[in-house]
Structure formats: structure tokens, C-alpha cells
Design goal:
Layout lengths: L1 H34 L4 E3 L7 E3 L2 H17 L5 H13 L1 H18 L8 E5 L7 E8 L11 E7 L6 E7 L3 E3 L4 H9 L7
Antiparallel strand pairs: 1-2, 3-4, 3-7, 4-5, 5-6
């Protein structure tokens, strides 16, 4: 009986993460596909007419690529610069736009911010550490000493975290990549780096 329970638990360890992953990906694809309701009707002789799914995703990818192409173009670049300035000057839109822009830029922009994982000693008297990412090495605009850094400490199983300004003496670099370290933190330390 004990072996049967072990087999069942082993099966759960395989099926649950796989099923949840496929479910989340499926729901994400369906959500993206429905953002732009676009489909191509297919008719095959002898079969019932059906729509080809996924065309909404293709349309979104093409639209994003086209926007990127136009944003880097010589003629249209001033238009996007003007639009960006307008968004950055509009009171409520400024907060939303700059926050989203900075977040996207932190992951995929030229100034990637989560590529420098570190250990932060939380108390000088105790050996308690948290894993974080240096997001800025200049916090002088906050009136902090030159020896302080901005370190983002993500929470496990969440998409949020907390930002600390920490003396450099309490920070130790980690020898792992940013993506692997982020996965380790978000999983609560149950994955391997």
C-alpha cells in the first residue's frame, strides 16, 4: 500500500506542474488570440467549416513588429518622440506610461536591470541574507551616500517586491545569471540555480 501511495505522489509531482504549465500557456494564448478577434475560415470538402485559431496572435506579433519598425524609421521617429513626450507630460498618464516603460525596459531594453543578482545581509549582527538585484548604483539624488546602492528584493510566488537602499558593504555579488536567480527567488528556493 505504501508503494502505491508513493507512486501516486510521484505521479502528482509530474502531472500537476505539467498540467498547470500547459493550462496557463493555453489560457494565455487564448487571451492573446482574443485580443484581436481575427480568424481565417477554412473549408475542406467533406468536412465541416472551421476557423483557423491563432491568427489574433499572429496579428499582434505583426502589429508590434510593425510599430517597432516605424518607431526606428527616419520619418516616423519624430512622431513617436512627440507621442512619448505628450504621454510623459499628461498628469495621470505620465505615472502609468513611465512605470510600464521602465519595467519593460528593465527586462528587454538597452538598460537591463535584473542582470546583477546579489546577496544582501539584512542585519550586521546576524547571518541573514536575501537575494536581490542591483537596479541602480547611483542613489545620490535621494541624498544617500555614494557607497549606497538601490537593490530590488523580489518576493517568492509573486510579481512584486521591495526596494532597499543598502550600503555596498552589506552586498555580495552572486555568480549566477539574472534569469536563473529570479526563477530561484520566485519559486521560493525550491528550484536549482
Amino acid at each position: 500500500m505504501k508503494k502505491l501511495i508513493n507512486y501516486f505522489l510521484q505521479g502528482l509531482l509530474i502531472i500537476v506542474p505539467t498540467a498547470v504549465t500547459f493550462y496557463v500557456v493555453y489560457k494565455g494564448v487564448v487571451w492573446l488570440d482574443n485580443l484581436i478577434p481575427f480568424s481565417i475560415p477554412i473549408e475542406i470538402p467533406g468536412y465541416e467549416k472551421f476557423d483557423l485559431p491563432g491568427m489574433g496572435i499572429v496579428a499582434i506579433v505583426m502589429l508590434i513588429t510593425l510599430m517597432g519598425y516605424f518607431a526606428t524609421g527616419f520619418i516616423t521617429k519624430p512622431l513617436f518622440v512627440y507621442l512619448e513626450l505628450a504621454l510623459e507630460r499628461t498628469p495621470l498618464l505620465k505615472i502609468i506610461y513611465t512605470a510600464v516603460k521602465d519595467l519593460v525596459d528593465a527586462f528587454v531594453g538597452e538598460k537591463k536591470r535584473f542582470n546583477n543578482p546579489v546577496l544582501v545581509k539584512l542585519d550586521e549582527d546576524k547571518e541573514v541574507y536575501r537575494i536581490g538585484f542591483i537596479t541602480s548604483d547611483d542613489v545620490s539624488h535621494l541624498g544617500m551616500p555614494d557607497t549606497s546602492l538601490a537593490v530590488y528584493l523580489p518576493f517568492s510566488y509573486a510579481i512584486n517586491g521591495i526596494l532597499y537602499i543598502v550600503p555596498a558593504s552589506m552586498i555580495s555579488p552572486l555568480e549566477h545569471g539574472g534569469a536563473e536567480t529570479m526563477k530561484y527567488v520566485i519559486s521560493g528556493g525550491v528550484t536549482k540555480i
